[in-house]
Each structure stands twice: as structure tokens, then as C-alpha cells.
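Researcher: Please predict.
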Amino acid sequence: MCGNSTTCAGSAFGHCCSQYFWCGNAIDYCGIGCQSLFGSCGGVATNGQCGNGVTCTGSTFGRCCSEYGYCGDSADYCRTLFSCQPQWGSCDPN
């Protein structure tokens, strides 16, 4: 749990504090309602890596997040059947 004086930063459960005050790394924790006073919240990829609260949407590296956690625009990054992570970017190869 997070809140009051407890933060998710460095937590084994994840670095984001959800709107319900639980730590995690998924979009439910890092997205809408994230409590930025008690951990990190989602942001745009600045180094080409995505996932764990970091999205490719709006990044200069590409709009899709691959299964390995990297942003790109090619089919290798955007294929929903194989590798795309829709919670951290688009999965439309077009």
C-alpha cells in the first residue's frame, strides 16, 4: 500500500501508486488516478524504452511498445498477435 508517508518508489510491487493506494507498474497503477505524491506516474518514453508506466505514445522513438519494452513503428513493434503492449502505446501497424 501507498499513501500518507508510504511511497512506491523502490517498492518490489511497482513504482506507481494507484488511485486506490496500491503499488504496481501496470496502467491501472500508473495511468489515470495515479498518486504522484507517493510514487511515479506514467510518462512518455525519453530513451526508447517503454512499459512499467512509460508509454510510446507521443515519443520520438515510435508509437508502439514491443514485448521487449522498446518503442518503434515497424510491424515488429506493432503486431498485436506477437509483440505489442497496447497499454503502453498503439498496436496499429499503419
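Model: The chain has a mean pLDDT of 87.
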